[in-house]
Write a structure and sequence with these properties.
The complex is a heterodimer. Chain A is an all-beta fold. Chain A has no helices and eleven strands. In chain A, strand 7 and strand 8 form a beta hairpin. In chain B, strand 7 and strand 8 form a beta hairpin. Classes of the chains: A mainly beta, B mainly beta.
Chain lengths: ~110, ~120
């Protein structure tokens, strides 16, 4: 089993739709979780950290489920500009070394 | 978010030359920086973890003598691709870890290396 797994997609959704991605991780001792966004030929940008209690930032909601070892990202009211690859990042337990998922591609169409 | 710069943004060089890439954290100190490589339509691949004042830790399969890393200060890490060959052409991205309870990483804009 890979350390961090994501469905590569692509997820093709119309503007205004709600879309959710999951990311599973194998190391139960993992401490820190993040969602990054990467546009084509650009560097990843931090979208949000994922707290134990979950967190929300505008149209974006992130959740952590430690029992099932996954994190999720929910995007409401999708915009064309949300089209990107969303990377799940998990820091290994006891270290700062990040492990990246392969990313989930989202395409929002008019 | 915190700012990380990377220089140069684009390099085209001849086979056999060495290329140095700089990564700087501009508004925070980073004891740990990371170097990644990304081929087209592929995932980010961690090459090495750069620790200020100590030797870098390389991932399996990454040649430390080919990819020299120096983390001389809390705001600067450099990656030197020695004797570059066409197969080294890639997008090299650094990130700096800001110390907090979450240790978020912030990425530089990347360096696109093309070796002819």
């Amino acid at each position: 089993r890979k350390e961090v797994e994501q469905d590569p997609g692509p997820f093709n959704v119309p503007e205004g739709a709600t879309v959710a991605f999951n990311c599973t991780y194998s190391n139960s001792a993992s401490q820190s979780f993040f969602w990054y966004r990467q546009d084509c030929r650009k560097e990843p940008k931090l979208l949000m950290s994922v707290y134990s209690s979950g967190n929300e930032d505008g149209r974006f909601t992130a959740q952590l489920n430690r029992a099932s070892q996954y994190i999720s990202l929910l995007i409401r009211d999708s915009k064309l500009s949300d089209s990107a690859t969303y990377l799940c990042v998990v820091n290994k337990g006891g270290s700062y070394i990040p492990t990246f998922g392969r990313g989930t591609s989202l395409i929002v169409h008019p | 978010g915190a700012v990380v710069s990377q220089h140069p943004s684009r390099v085209i060089c001849k086979s056999g030359t060495s290329v140095k890439i700089e990564c700087r954290s501009l508004d925070f100190q980073a004891t740990t920086m990371f170097w990644y490589r990304q081929f087209p339509k592929k995932s980010l691949m961690l090459m090495a973890t750069s620790n200020e004042g100590s030797k870098a830790t390389y991932e399996q399969g990454v040649e430390k003598d080919k990819f020299l890393i120096n983390h001389a200060s809390l705001t600067l890490s450099t990656l030197t691709v020695t004797s570059a060959h066409p197969e080294d052409s890639s997008f090299y991205i650094c990130s700096a870890s800001r110390e907090s309870i979450y240790n978020e990483q912030f990425f530089g804009p990347g360096t696109r290396l093309t070796v002819l």
